[in-house]
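Researcher: Here's a chain I'd like modeled. Treat it as a single chain, no partners, no ligands.
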Amino acid sequence: MGLEGSISYFLLPYPLSLSHSLLPSFMRLNNPLFLSIAFVVVILDQLTKYWVVEAFSFWPLEAVTDPKTGMTYDRHTLPLLQGIFHLTYAKNDGAAFSILSGQIDLLRWLSLGVSLVLIGFALFGPVLNRWDQLGYGFILGGAMGNGIDRFALGYVVDFFDFRLINFAIFNVADSFISIGIVCLLIASLQKTPTSSRRTH
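Model: Modeled as a single isolated chain. Structure tokens:
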């Protein structure tokens, strides 16, 4: 179900539990970096999208042919490196990198569900190491950033356009979701040697 749905794989080793903490200490955050990172990502994502929405009408127009329909339409794009990297305004009714295009209702509630699960995990789950907190924080921030768009606009604002590799147009939230998954993979690799020693 795209990058946002893939985080369920990483949640399996960490069941939610309150047994590790006493009731008087529940107000103390177990994973402060987790939530702090998520907050920063949401702010960065929404600020960049706000700037793009305010600025794109001043960018040059280019004619584009839709490969699915064959129809030609105009869109606003600002070449930073001509033919390599542009800022291109796009409305995405799919998931990260235009996956599940047109499934806005499903993705709206998926974003909300992923965000609530991760917030609960940050507040009530076990104390995580730095790489885990970074990874989950980046993913939570990305899911919330795109979720805000889906509920408020009915689509996600995308604008990063790498043309050298003909990649899908994406945004800050998508980028941090990808970075978050890399952080979780690093955390998983760091845990592997310990796990293997225990089995011998």
